[in-house]
Design a protein that fits this description.
Blueprint lengths: L4 E6 L3 H13 L2 E6 L2 H9 L7 E5 L8 H11 L5 E5 L6 H4 L5 E4 L4 H16 L5
Parallel strand pairs: 1-2, 1-3, 3-4, 4-5
């Protein structure tokens, strides 16, 4: 039996997290949801987890922001696909986002997140990009 591809979803708004999780599950992904940057960075540092992608909000309350989570993810996994979600910080993506990432501005359709992460995962796993 093939193991589902695991996505780390970092979102502090429960309704958005559940909506995105449902869409990712329907897209065939397993999802681990965390609600703050500190826990997300700890999960990334945990060698037991192997996340195939990261979907993160930018503003996560106190502690590290989504920018910081993505930066740590890329330090550990240089090719990990990253999708950012933001309502009012999307304009910072060019200066703060990790290379080859995607910004999806809120409000969005959950399918946009699935399409974005799927495209990035496919680009990483494609032999032509190596």
């Amino acid at each position: 039996m093939e193991k589902a591809v695991l996505i780390l979803l970092v979102e502090d708004e429960a309704m958005i997290a559940l909506e995105v999780q449902d869409a990712l599950n329907e897209g065939g992904y397993a999802v681990s949801i965390l609600t703050n940057g500190t826990d997300a960075i700890a999960a990334l540092n945990d060698a037991e987890h192997h996340f195939a992608g990261l979907v993160t909000d930018i503003q996560l309350g106190n502690g590290p922001e989504g920018w910081d989570v993505a930066q740590r993810a890329r330090e550990l996994y240089p090719d990990i696909p990253v999708v950012y979600m933001s309502g009012n910080r999307a304009g910072d993506h060019n200066s703060r986002g990790v290379p080859n990432s995607v910004m999806v501005q809120k409000p969005f359709a959950s399918a946009q997140i699935v399409t974005a992460i799927s495209t990035l995962i496919n680009n990483v796993s494609s032999p032509s990009t190596r």
